[in-house]
UniProtKB/TrEMBL annotation, chain A:
PROSITE patterns: ABC_TM1
UniProtKB keywords: Cell membrane, Membrane, Transmembrane, Transmembrane helix, Transport
Membrane topology: Multi-pass membrane protein
Residue span(s) of domain ABC transmembrane type-1: 62-280
Organism encoding this protein: Paenibacillus vini
PANTHER family (alphabetical): ABC TRANSPORTER PERMEASE PROTEIN YQGI-RELATED (PTHR43470:SF4), PHOSPHATE TRANSPORT SYSTEM PERMEASE PROTEIN PSTA-RELATED (PTHR43470)
Protein name: Phosphate transport system permease protein PstA
Superkingdom assignment: Bacteria
Chief subcellular location: membrane
InterPro entries: MetI-like, MetI-like_sf, Phosphate_PstA
Sequence intervals crossing the membrane: 12-34, 66-87, 99-123, 129-149, 181-202, 261-280
Localization per record: Cell membrane
Family membership noted in the UniProt record: Belongs to the binding-protein-dependent transport system permease family. CysTW subfamily.
One Pfam family, short name: BPD_transp_1
TrEMBL record, chain B:
Domain ABC transporter span(s) in chain numbering: 6-247
PANTHER family: ABC TRANSPORTER I FAMILY MEMBER 17
Native organism: Paenibacillus vini
SMART domains: AAA
Keywords, ordered alphabetically: ATP-binding, Nucleotide-binding, Transport
GO terms, molecular function: ATP binding
InterPro entries to which the protein is assigned, alphabetical: AAA+_ATPase, ABC_transporter-like_ATP-bd, ABC_transporter-like_CS, P-loop_NTPase, PstB-like
Gene3D superfamilies from the UniProt entry: P-loop containing nucleotide triphosphate hydrolases
Any one Pfam family match given in the protein's UniProt record, by short name: ABC_tran
Taxonomic superkingdom: Bacteria
Name the record gives this protein: Phosphate import ATP-binding protein PstB 1
């Protein structure tokens, strides 16, 4: 076989596999959207669910998912950035650093149900946060932190050594170099990691079953005092997220239109993730432009 | 007798077990260009990088001996390297402008060192770019990305960036070797201009360049300085056979 034929065959095979992947993805996405999109209406997005009657919505669940996302990211991003920068720039290479890296790797392959049970044990019971958004956010942090740390470390390591040296040679401190020269260059990579982590928050159900709980109190959307128990902003109330709701309604839903609600909620979930992705990328590009003056 | 800007006493650099620089003692006169020449791997770049403690960044590098600037030995653990590096600028082989605008590349250092006044910063940017012979080409696009400049322009920008924090010494590590001949000639012209205000130590592989731009030349071989003399002597009448062999192209 000539090199040219081999090259052609390899190209064809690769295109074939890529095509299969695209087909599967498009099929899955299309299936969920086609089944669910008809059920989405303003009413569906805003009204609370019904237990046994038809026509319940997913309003509180949608809000819970978004709120939990914000809460989790508020905890995960600073921790992840800090640890990632430490691992990349401050930790001396050696046995201890390698050991920390190993732990991070192990942690990232933890099954999420185990993280959920750990959360139940530690956050819900020992620390006494109860079934709450806060417990859920902490469990998701355990779940997402390894990803965030690794991505930050990779992002920092992707900055050319010459950039770092140029900054230090001007007499800038290490921290200033990290903050003003390295982080802006690493930003696109770190942002991708953050989006991945955020996507997992949206989609995660198992880790939340035992931490954030499977029910929502009757939320009063006119009460925005985070301390009052019926307020949507109270981080210490139980909160069922969209993903948990889909799981619950599929396995034990009593409403006659449960399959439609599940389908509609799935479509909403996917659209939310998509929207969030696009938004985050757009903001990331804006920031990158601002810091690096690229047009 | 000329003023001595910087001198090393018995300076050695080790990478782990390997000794890359072997007890070098050299004096560098102020407002002169000193060229460090020698075959690849002779330790000249390593020597240069230890003068502003850049080798500190490399894990496993160990530097012994003394480096004197004025009456301070800067190879001392107590030396504030951040302050030190402000006094010693550096330019690398490959242009490495920051991924920022042309203006920001220059203003970044001075602003960090305490100059906040916009007018003053504008003035520093203009002066530095003018000194680096880049002002005319860039004055209308200071807000464009530095990466939009050509390689030669980027290198002059890097020189402008280093003089913006007003160092007294500039270290150059083969500053023209990654550039085309025309850009390279511009850098050489620039070096001839800059030595009126700065003491320049330049590592170069190009012996013609060394002969053209420098007053003094040190010939490095295997981590040692074989000969250190006026450039004219080194190139016309070297006292060591090995120097003669190297500059006449018999090895290296």
């Amino acid at each position: 076989m000539s090199a040219k034929t081999a090259d052609k065959i390899a190209t064809a095979v690769i295109i074939f596999f890529a095509g299969i992947i695209v087909l599967i993805m498009a099929g899955l996405l299309g299936f969920i959207l086609v089944r669910g999109i008809g059920h989405i209406s303003f009413d569906f997005l805003t009204s609370p669910p019904e237990t046994i009657k038809k026509g319940g919505g997913i309003g509180p669940q949608l809000f819970n998912s978004l709120f939990l996302l914000v809460l989790t990211m508020l905890i995960t991003v600073p921790l992840g950035l800090g640890a990632g920068i430490y691992m990349s720039e401050y930790a001396k290479p050696g046995k201890v650093t390698d050991f920390i890296r190993l732990i991070v790797e192990v942690l990232s392959s933890f099954p999420s149900i185990v993280v959920g049970l750990f959360g139940l044990l530690v956050f819900v019971n020992v620390f006494g946060f109860g079934f709450s958004l806060f417990s859920g956010a902490l469990a998701l942090t355990v779940f997402n932190l390894p990803l965030m740390v690794r991505i930050t470390e990779q992002g920092m390591q992707s900055v050319p050594q010459a950039q770092k040296e140029a900054s230090l040679a001007l007499g800038l401190s290490k921290w200033k170099t990290i903050k003003s020269i390295m982080l802006p260059i690493a930003l696109p990579i770190i942002l991708t990691g953050t989006i991945l982590a955020a996507g997992r928050v949206f989609g995660e159900a198992a880790a939340l079953l035992f931490t954030a709980g499977m029910s929502s109190p009757r939320l009063d959307f006119s009460d925005w005092n985070p301390l009052s128990p019926m307020s949507p902003l109270n981080p210490f109330r139980p909160a069922e997220t969209l993903a948990v709701h889909i799981w619950k309604i599929n396995s034990e839903g009593l409403a006659p239109d449960a399959p439609e609600i599940a389908a509609g909620a799935s479509a909403v979930l996917i659209l939310m993730v998509l929207l969030f992705n696009l938004l985050a990328r757009w903001i990331g590009r804006l920031l990158h432009k601002k810091f690096t003056a690229t047009k | 007798m000329q003023n001595i800007e910087l001198s090393t006493k018995d300076l050695s650099v080790f990478y782990g077990e390997k000794q890359a620089v072997k007890g070098i003692s050299l004096d560098f006169a102020s407002r002169q260009v000193t060229a460090l020449i020698g075959p690849s791997g002779c330790g000249k770049s390593t020597f240069l990088r230890s003068l502003n403690r850049m080798n500190d960044l490399i894990g496993g590098a160990r530097i012994t001996g003394e480096i004197w600037i004025g009456n301070e030995n800067i190879n001392d653990p107590k030396t504030d390297v951040v302050l030190l590096r402000q006094k010693i600028g550096m330019v690398w082989q490959r242009p490495n402008p920051f991924h920022k605008s042309i203006y920001e590349n220059i203003a970044f250092g001075p602003r960090y060192h305490g100059i906040r006044d916009k007018k003053k910063l504008d003035q520093i940017v203009e002066e530095s770019l003018t000194k680096a012979a880049l002002w005319e080409e860039t004055k209308d696009r200071l807000n464009r990305s530095a990466l939009s400049l050509s390689g030669g322009q980027q290198q002059r920008l890097c020189i402008a960036r280093s003089i913006a924090v007003s160092p007294s010494i500039i270290l150059m590590d083969e500053p023209a070797s990654a550039l085309d001949p025309i850009s390279s000639a511009k850098i050489e012209e620039l070096i001839a201009e800059l030595k009126r205000d700065y003491s320049i130590i330049i590592v170069t592989h190009n012996m013609h360049q060394a002969a053209r731009v420098s007053e003094k030349t040190a010939f490095f071989l295997m981590g040692e300085v074989v000969e250190y003399d006026d450039t004219s002597n080194i190139f016309t009448n070297p006292s060591d056979k090995r120097t003669d062999d190297y500059i006449s192209g018999r090895f290296g």
